[in-house]
Amino acid sequence: MKILAFSDVHGNPTIIKTLLEKANNADILVCAGDISIFSNNLKQILEKFKKTQKQLLIIPGNHESPKDLENINNSVISIHKGAYRIDNIVFIGYGTGGFSKVDKEFELFIKKVKPTLRKDDKVILVTHGPPYGTKLDKLPYFEHVGSTSYRKAISQIKPFLYICGHLHENFNKKDKVDKTFIINPGPEGKLINV
C-alpha cells in the first residue's frame, strides 16, 4: 500500500493541485489536519479530493473542528478519536490542538484503543501536533514543544509509522523513536510505502 501523507495545506490552491497529481500514485490519502484556514471553503476543498477516487482519511487540525469534518462525502473519513482498518493496517487518529504538552483525553483514548489492536497489526498513528523530544517538535532558538502524551503513546501502542504536522518550521522532517518512523510530511506531501 502506498500512502500520500500531508498536513497544513491551509486551502492553498497550488498545493492542492500538486497533491491531486501526487494522489495518482497513492492507494490512500492521509491528512494530519489544517487542510483549510479556519474551515473556510472546507467542503469545496474536500470535494476536490473526492475527484481522485481515493479514500481520504483526515483529522482536524487547529483550523478545523471535529464537527466540520463529519458527513462531508463518502470518500472522506474522519478518523479523529477513532480507527480505520484495512486488513492488518490500522490508522489511529487524534486531531485538533497541537499546543499542549499533556493531553489527558488523548491518553484515555489510547488506553481504550490499545486492547482492540491485534498482535500482527501495523499501526499508523496520526495526530496534528508532534510527539515531544523529536526533530519534529524542536523549534529554532527554542525548546521542544511537542506533546509528552503523544510520545508516551509511541511506547504504548508501538506504531510503525507516526504522521503529524502543525509546526510549519519542521515540514519534511523525519525522525525515529525506537522502531517508530515519525514524519511531518508538510503541505506538499510525501508518498510512503507501507
Describe the structure.
The chain has 194 residues and is of the alpha/beta class. Helix content is 20%, strand content 26%. The protein contains four helices and eleven strands. It has helices at 13-22, 42-50, 104-113, 148-157; strands spanning 2-6, 28-31, 55-58, 76-78, 82-86, 89-94, 122-127, 161-163, 173-177, 180-184, 190-193. The strands form two sheets. Strands 5-6-7-8-10-9 form a six-stranded mixed sheet, covered by helices on one side. Helix 1 (13-22) links the parallel strand 1 (2-6) and strand 2 (28-31). Helix 3 packs parallel to helix 4 (148-157). The longest helix is centred in the N-terminal third of the chain and has 10 residues, at 13-22. It is globular.
Instruction: Tally the beta strands.
Output: 11
What's the story with the biggest beta sheet? Answer: 6 strands, mixed
What fraction of the residues are assigned to beta strands by DSSP?
25-35%
- Arithmetic mean of pLDDT: 95
Shape: globular
Along the chain, the helix and strand elements come as EHEHEEEEHEHEEEE
Distance from N terminus to C terminus (CA atoms, Å) equals 5 Å
Low-confidence stretches: none
Our count of helices gives: 4
- Rg, rounded, reads 15 Å
Q: Give the helix level as a range of percent.
A: 10-25%
Question: Strands of the biggest beta sheet: in what spatial order?
Answer: 5-6-7-8-10-9
Q: Which quaternary structure do these chains form?
A: single chain
Structural class: alpha/beta
